[in-house]
Design goal:
The complex is a heterodimer of chains A (322) and B (299).
Chain A lengths: L1 H31 L5 H4 L6 H11 L5 H13 L5 E2 L5 E2 H36 L4 H15 L2 H20 L14 H35 L2 H8 L4 H29 L3 H6 L5 H8 L5 H29 L7
Antiparallel strand pairs in A: 1-2
Helix pairs in contact in A: 1-4, 1-13, 5-6, 5-8, 5-10, 6-8, 7-8, 8-10, 9-10, 10-13, 12-13
Chain B lengths: L1 H16 L3 H11 L1 H23 L30 H37 L1 H16 L2 H12 L3 H27 L3 H8 L4 H37 L11 H8 L8 H28 L9
Helix pairs in contact in B: 2-11, 3-4, 3-11, 4-5, 4-7, 4-9, 4-10, 4-11, 5-7, 6-7, 7-9, 8-9, 9-10, 9-11, 10-11
Classes of the chains: A mainly alpha (322), B mainly alpha (299).
Amino acid sequence: MTGVFAYAVRRIFTTIPLLVAATFVVFVLVSISGDPLARLATCTTCSDAAYDRLIDLYELDKPIPLRYVGWITDAATGDLGTSTSLGEKPVAGIVAERLWNTALLAVPSFLLIAFLAVVLGVFSAIKQYSIGDYLVTGASFVGIAMPTFFFGLLLQAFWGVWWQDWTGWKPFYVTGKHVASFGDYLASATLPIITLTIVLLATESRFQRAAMLEVIGSDYIRTARAKGLSERRVIFKHALRNALIPLVTLWALDFAGLLGGSVITETIFAWPGLGQLLVSALPNLDLDLVMGLVMVAALLTISFNLLADLLYGVLDPRIRYD
Amino acid sequence: MTDTRHVSAIDDSIETEARSFGRQVWDRFRRHKLAVLAAVVLVVLTVSFWVAPALSPYEFDEITPDFRQPPTAAHPFGTDDIGRDLLVRTFMGGRFSIRIALLVALSTTLIGTLLGAVAGYFGGWIDALVSQIINMVLLVPALAILLVLALKWGSSPWSISIVLAALLWTRIARVVRGLFLQYKEQEFVMAARSAGARSGRIMFRHILPNVMGPVVVETTLLVGTAIILESTLSFLGLGVQFPTPTLGNLVAEAKGAIDSNPYRVLLPGSFVMLITLSINFLGDGLRDALDPSSGGGRT
């Protein structure tokens, strides 16, 4: 157990320089992508105080590397700075609020994806080359080729316009977040959740099928069958457990990505999450907000990757952390 | 005399058995029916993207008096808000999308192969550096970087291509690095080195031909990824700017009119899907044909 702990600590420490380098690159890119003062140039009612305020907020009187040092030292203490586009509120508070909204979509989608990917992948693998397998594989090919924005738009048009035209009944909200009651939440979150699910499910079920087929073809499965174990036991106890190992990494990356906010889905369905925030923060040159979002996404990726590597040890006792 | 006849008979049988590498690849590829179909679809689509606009009586940026038309005989795909013919715009959009995707795939392959090869072959600090850069790129949300870069530099097809390549090179670099690590220890590399070949020659004349299979597969799949990413960027309004049409910005432009004329969204969107689907099938077929040991596509 101490081995695992030492491994985790070492991993965290080796990731810190990477995180610093990555955020530095993003900071420089965002800083040179535009001048926050340019917006004030066309503003006739703004006073000099507004200029000074922006210069002060972004430390525009200092070179970019020094601004970064200022930002990262603050960020290390949990102070992510101030958002300018959303009325001078602290970034940490905004991000926390939006993270919750994103999680309202991300958590159910992830559970659906993980569950369905395993079910469809295992089904496809044990019924290889059956009609069901061809249907699942074909659907996953279509799902992979389907751009998220196209699927989202079609879903929105179907339930928002066409279905209502035919039946006079509109079961879902097609834009915005409604959480007055659980029914409202379901009515407004279902379509974005389906959009998120379909796109990732296509990749994951294909991956699960390949992993499962590889395991089923291996010697220890033949041994398990030769021992006279029931097929159910062979598949679920012996094969699935091994076929899940490669999938865990994919789960970690996908869940981190989902929690980091999905730009397209949230934009289409006007869901006030992290992804939609990023799209609105960038053109407004809201540097601290953009950096806060990137930081959160990077931290999520790091944490879930680490979690996946630790889960490997649980699923496969042969893996040692030393 | 009977001896020579015998020998020539053996020669014949050897000749019919021995197939060139290209021939073997073609034979394996041909068996993959879907991949052949996909290749045909791609060729037909690409040719029509270049030919159809030339045959149309309209220019892609020509404004006609019939605006917001549903599909009619004169305008089979309808017209947009200011009366431009959508058939010609969709096919021109396909042309721009394909052109950008090819550019992205080629530049990404070039960067990724070069960095992967150098990292895998030389190892040591170079490998550590390249690997850490790859980890760094994977750490930040891809779309965030893409949006920042696109906002500042991307509005022409060229800059979009460079921006996408800067983001996508990591995958192919990892593949190539792994293969170089594996090949550099093999006897033929040692033989080349002992014959006095320089590193550059060993890397590009001896090892690179061996890794071309996986590289070609990755490049093919990259075209599909690039089409989707380019159309996504255009959809968000950060891609190629008007009046130049791409399949993505056509969908974006049409989304407000989806209830009055759903074909405006369906047609360009379906083109994106059809192209990507075909490319993925083609990539699978190529993987089986070029790299049969991987077993990737068949599973």
